[in-house]
Amino acid sequence: MIEVRDVTRRFGRLIAIADASFSVAAGEIVALLGPNGAGKTTMSRTIAGILAPSAGDVAVDGLSVRADPDRVRARCGMVTDAPSLYERMTLRAYLGFFCGLYDVARPEARIADLCALLGLTPVLERRLGTFSRGMKQKTAIARALVHDPPVLLLDEPATALDPEMTQTLRELIVSLRARHRAILLCTHDLDEAQRIADRVVIVDRGRIVRIASTAALRAGGRPRAVVVVRGDAARIRAALVAAGVATEALATANGDLAYRYDADGAAEANTRVLRALLEAGASVVSLVDEERTLEEAYLATIREARS
Amino acid sequence: MRKAWLIAWREIRWEIWGDRGSFLRQGVFFLVPLLLILTSRGEAPGPRLDRTIILLAAQSALLPAISGVALIASTFSQEKENGTLVPLLAAPIRDLDIVVGKLVGMLVPMTLLSVATLAVAYLASIWTFGARAVQHALTPELLYALVVVSFFYVLSTGAWVLVVAARVRSSRAAQQLSGILIAITLGAFATAGAVAATLWDGWGILALAALIAALDLVALELARRGWQRSEVIARL
Description:
The structure holds two protein chains of two kinds. Chain A is α/β, with parallel strands linked by helices. Chain A folds into two domains: 2-218, 3-Layer(aba) Sandwich (Rossmann fold), CATH 3.40.50.300; 222-291, Alpha-Beta Plaits. Chain A contains eleven helices and 14 strands. Chain A has helices at residues 40-47, 69-75, 91-101, 107-118, 133-145, 163-178, 190-196, 214-219, 233-243, 266-279, 294-306, and strands spanning 2-11, 14-24, 28-33, 55-60, 63-64, 76-79, 151-155, 182-186, 199-204, 207-213, 224-230, 247-250, 257-262, 283-290. Chain B has one domain (2-234). The mean pLDDT of chain B is 81. Chains A and B meet through helix 2 and helix 3 of A and helix 1, helix 4 and helix 10 of B.
């Protein structure tokens, strides 16, 4: 559905995106991750057909942004971190205006459906300037969906939303994936990305440094385990050294001792650790494999790319 | 052009009509000619009164036009700063529709305001100086010329200002450059008008009108070329 092919975007001497290629299929959520200034917003604007690539091309639903930007724009819905609304307009007039720009066939019905979905029906006749930040963001989401686009470009869409609305938004995004929409989610919220993204694209300083499925990225680091024990601290530490694993002490709330260790070859490492601890007279409260969070995987990828 | 009209209608309905404060601000255009009338009361009919009445009419028609051009600069640069331009640029509309929509959205109300101010000034002049003196100084041709010139002034200078506002980053820079542009074009219009009026028994004015119309077409074409969404969004 989205095909980014060798795209470079320059602003004068600054290269905002360098030779980027990736794709987003219909029914897929891809998270575009990267530090501030990495080129995420430039990328989403380029895909949306509002910023022409300096080199390369983007195909959206088979249409080139270079050759057919108008038709590309008609197929994309875009939400930015700032709602950016015309604050003197009422909600109904605002959505009606964008229905007109996107040639929506039955605007009143579409507006009613979207407002019901996002809980905006009671404020249809209110001016947007009187809305809270969260309501404004919901309005921006409704605006992006007025034409029921096959491609959604979400640039920090959950900014300023309360937890309840964030969950509603998450459910909405997932339901759109189920309806075969291609969704590109630019975000700093790695927890959110971990929950819903099928794949991640990590960019740093305009370059793509990693494309992987979320699961593969999280599994890509060294496997680690955390053991929680009770007993004499000095003997336990000596036992762990004897087991031959590199450990890191963790803080605990109830006086138990917790250690994280690299568990390369988990079966052997865990057996060695358990045996050593039991021989040292410790009581083992728990031993669990620790999967990397997306945040850890992301930070490791960025560090690796920079080194 | 349907989408250009949608944009223009939004500007007129929500940004001008929906801004109650703007009505109070526009009131100054009615006050300035009235003050001139008050200070010129008691003047005897003659060339001096004719000049005063013509100045009054010119002021009434052109002040709203100048304000209209300044408004184009400020509303457009505010849209850039507030980010409201991004959803508009992301919609499937041509660059020309945005340019024309923004221009028409200012052109219509400002031309109506020019006509209304001129009408008020005309009636107040008749009340103060008498119908014969006013009709002697302000011929229907001159009134018509004033309205047309103010219309063309907003159109041509507005198109230039739109390009300037699109090409600079900050609202302040846009307004400063637009101010310079307004001053230069106003000077050029006034000088050309004064010179043209003395040529060929008034036919010079007609030639000037044709020249301005041609310049408007050039300005619109340059605005279309200079106002490209990629360039605009690159400066947001």
